[in-house]
Amino acid sequence: MQLSFLRRTVVGPAVLSVQDIKIGARISTIHVTLSQRPDRPRTADGKDDLEVKVVGYITVSPPDMEEGPIRKGTWGLSPPPVSGSLANGSVNLEALAATGKDGAWMRLPRPPPGLTAPQNLEIYAPRPQGPMTLESRQKQVVDQWTRFKPGGNTVARWSNEAVMFLADMFPAALDRMGAMETSRLLAMEGVQEGELQGNAHDKGAFWYPTVTLNIDLRTRIPPEGVEWLQSRVVTRMLRGSRADLDIVILDPQGELIALSTQVALVVNASRNTKGRANSEKL
């Protein structure tokens, strides 16, 4: 799936338009657009046409075409994730759900109400080791275990469709991107790299709008779903306020579920909180 985010979206009604581009026996491709009302005051006649917010191409193939055994390469997360309490270093997910902690892992606080999308998740991450300076925040690898909690109340199970949502949900990685952008802005002001350690405060709040999002579902989740999924998020580079990210999603058995790449901007939060009625362009 390849998505391009053209304009800011809002929580509320949307219209999905689906067009068959190529329907084949093994591989089919469809074009999808998501439209909403313009993000600006109504016109004098009180009418507003819908405008396209997101466009995408989705390539699908039927499960029964995936025949034969699977061959796997010698691949794994590097560096390995922080250990849990089990003898082999794995995380005890039952203990994590029951107590909110296991080994070096802990449940993250619920995000503030203004952050709508993360309200649908229950996220667990390694406890911080030492003081969180600006320098250390840039170096951390972002790992998380996540349970799906639609509506913020009842724990559900991950489906193939819900994985697409998870691929764009990583609060700790946003903090890392904010630290990288702060470091970049300070460098533009002449602050040397060695002086960053004592400066752990961002230069204001940031907004992280997605520009493009690509997701490749590698292993289908069974119809009954799974309770837990693990994500590894790596920010490869931040240049000119544009961040390039790689996301790997695994199930509790270490099976590769999905790969994702994303381009996102790191801009002042006022670009999102102000001018909503003015349809400000990025």
Automatic annotation (TrEMBL):
Superkingdom, natural source: Eukaryota
InterPro entries cross-referenced by the UniProt entry: ACOT8-like_C (IPR049450), Acyl-CoA_hotdog (IPR042171), HotDog_dom_sf (IPR029069), Sec_Metab_Biosynth-Assoc (IPR052389), TesB_ACOT8-like_N (IPR049449)
Pfam families documented for this protein: 4HBT_3, 4HBT_3C
Protein name: Thioesterase family protein
Positions of the Acyl-CoA thioesterase-like C-terminal domain: 113-266
Domain Acyl-CoA thioesterase-like N-terminal HotDog: 1-38
Phylogenetic placement of the source organism: Eukaryota, Fungi, Dikarya, Ascomycota, Pezizomycotina
Organism: Aspergillus fumigatus (strain ATCC MYA-4609 / CBS 101355 / FGSC A1100 / Af293)
SUPFAM superfamilies: Thioesterase/thiol ester dehydrase-isomerase
